[in-house]
């Protein structure tokens, strides 16, 4: 039974599974830390350039929070399967990834979550958007100091608006971390 | 519970790491456990084993080459076991070990930088329960947390099991258990009971064991 997690956010739903630490090919091994590979499978079709760019975002966030130096010359594989997309894809991938890594028991220095923020035509800032917007941003927020670990933005916005969106996302991340806590508490409720 | 102002030595188990001089980092999610006077660790449902020195595991021989056996223990690489690391083994008197045999061994080298090494003798040269085993019986996997529960000095699960059927049980800290009872059906019953122990409260588990003892299962 490999460690897995399924994350549903509104109508967007993602499944994640983690394999490792396992053997790594000599061509991919890194002498002092683990090699993390992220694979994103879209709902239909083969992975394309968009999936590759999202894989890089998820991988860099995971590498920043995992303690990779504890497993040198090993490989960690994270597979993310998109079940249904209704906006907030990247944020959902990040949340599912974090929960799967927690379930796997891989050593992490902090948890992270993904929050999507949009600026609509009326210059209002909304989280978890589903409609069209002037600017769309996804931030990965860490659990210790609510700092931004990764940001992915599309559209046009001012610096002031960007700072406002970051503040809104940091506030929204508290709900997600509380959800993580509740899920883990439920998982271990039989052992308490 | 404990006073953080007293300068006591604290022993950190799995899931806790020291960061710098006085800081502690929790690296896994799970239930924080405490054993008097100052041992702390985090218990979780992790199944993937990471080798640690001194732990006893169940391994399967995969390669027999020259002076060394290679064992699969469910980790990221295979461990090596020298043919001289058995009780009474010499260069002329090689141990009778074949590929596919189950071996109960202990780690003498287990860190992230080196290939793990196992031995089947203790420091006095005696087997002390280590070595090849497993004619008959069933090998299966459980989570590492359950294995640690089984290995506790007065384990509740083991005492409940003892009241059930007579059986042989080998517990490997890599999450592998080997069970042999007097019949195949009893072996399978014990295997199913142990695998379901993880997701049950104490009361549910005791009720299940009672039903098994009455012969309902």
From TrEMBL, chain A:
Start and end residues of each Exoribonuclease phosphorolytic domain: 7-107, 111-171
GO cellular component: cytoplasmic exosome (RNase complex); nuclear exosome (RNase complex); nucleolus
Key word Nucleotidyltransferase present: no
Localization, UniProt: Cytoplasm; Nucleus, Nucleolus
GO terms (BP aspect): nuclear mRNA surveillance; poly(A)-dependent snoRNA 3'-end processing; rRNA catabolic process; rRNA processing; U4 snRNA 3'-end processing
Coiled coil: none
Keyword hit for Hydrolase: no
Self-association and partners: Homodimer. Component of the RNA exosome core complex (Exo-9), composed of EXOSC1, EXOSC2, EXOSC3, EXOSC4, EXOSC5, EXOSC6, EXOSC7, EXOSC8 and EXOSC9; within the complex interacts with EXOSC3, EXOSC8, and EXOSC9. The catalytically inactive RNA exosome core complex (Exo-9) associates with the catalytic subunit EXOSC10/RRP6. Exo-9 may associate with DIS3 to form the nucleolar exosome complex, or DIS3L to form the cytoplasmic exosome complex.
PANTHER family: EXOSOME COMPLEX COMPONENT, EXOSOME COMPLEX COMPONENT RRP46
Name listed for the protein in its UniProt record: Exosome complex component RRP46
Lineage, highest ranks first: Eukaryota, Metazoa, Chordata, Craniata, Vertebrata
UniProtKB/TrEMBL annotation, chain B:
Compartments where located: Cytoplasm; Nucleus, Nucleolus
Gene Ontology biological process: CUT catabolic process; exonucleolytic trimming to generate mature 3'-end of 5.8S rRNA from tricistronic rRNA transcript (SSU-rRNA, 5.8S rRNA, LSU-rRNA); nuclear polyadenylation-dependent rRNA catabolic process; poly(A)-dependent snoRNA 3'-end processing; regulation of gene expression; TRAMP-dependent tRNA surveillance pathway; U4 snRNA 3'-end processing
Stated name of the protein: Exosome complex component RRP40
Organism listed in the record: Dissostichus eleginoides (Patagonian toothfish)
Family named by the database record: Belongs to the RRP40 family.
Pfam hit, one: KH_6
A molecular function (GO) term: RNA binding
Keyword Amino-acid biosynthesis recorded: no
Keywords, in A-Z order: Cytoplasm, Exosome, Nucleus, RNA-binding, rRNA processing
A GO-annotated cellular component: nucleolus
Primary location: cytoplasm
């Amino acid at each position: 039974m490999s460690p897995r997690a399924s994350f549903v956010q509104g109508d967007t739903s993602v499944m994640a599974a983690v394999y490792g630490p396992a053997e790594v090919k000599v061509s991919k091994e890194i002498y002092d830390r683990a090699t993390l590979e992220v694979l994103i499978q879209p709902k239909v079709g083969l992975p394309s350039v968009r999936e590759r760019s999202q894989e890089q975002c998820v991988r860099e966030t995971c590498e920043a929070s995992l303690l990779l130096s504890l497993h040198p010359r090993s490989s960690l594989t994270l597979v993310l399967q998109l079940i249904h997309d209704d906006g907030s894809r990247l944020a959902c991938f990040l949340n599912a990834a974090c929960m799967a890594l927690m379930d796997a028991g891989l050593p992490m220095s902090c948890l992270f979550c993904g929050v999507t923020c949009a600026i609509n035509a009326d210059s209002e800032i909304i989280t978890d958007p589903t409609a069209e917007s002037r600017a769309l941003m996804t931030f990965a927020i860490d659990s210790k100091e609510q700092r931004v670990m990764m940001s992915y933005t599309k559209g046009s916005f001012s610096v002031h608006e960007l700072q406002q969106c970051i503040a809104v996302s940091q506030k929204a991340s508290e709900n997600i971390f509380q959800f993580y806590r509740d899920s883990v508490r439920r998982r271990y409720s039989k052992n308490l | 519970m404990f006073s953080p102002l007293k300068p006591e030595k604290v022993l950190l188990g799995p899931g806790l790491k020291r960061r710098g001089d006085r800081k502690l980092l929790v690296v896994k999610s799970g239930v924080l456990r405490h054993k008097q006077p100052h041992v702390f660790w985090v218990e979780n449902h992790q199944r993937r084993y990471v080798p640690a020195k001194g732990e006893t595991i169940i391994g399967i021989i995969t390669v027999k080459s020259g002076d060394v056996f290679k064992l699969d223990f469910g980790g990221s690489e295979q461990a090596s076991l020298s043919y001289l690391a058995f009780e009474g083994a010499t260069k002329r008197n090689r141990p009778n070990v074949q590929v596919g045999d189950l071996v109960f061994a202990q780690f003498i080298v287990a860190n992230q930088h080196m290939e793990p090494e196992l031995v089947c003798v203790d420091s006095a040269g005696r087997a002390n329960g280590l070595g090849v085993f497993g004619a008959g019986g069933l090998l299966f996997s459980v989570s590492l947390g359950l294995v640690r529960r089984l290995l506790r000095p007065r384990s509740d699960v083991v005492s409940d099991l003892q009241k059930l059927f007579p059986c042989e049980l080998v517990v490997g800290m890599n999450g592998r258990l080997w069970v042999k009872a007097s019949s195949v059906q009893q072996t399978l019953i014990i295997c199913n009971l142990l695998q379901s122990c993880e997701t049950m409260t104490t009361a549910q588990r005791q009720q299940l064991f009672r039903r098994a003892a009455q012969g309902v299962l």
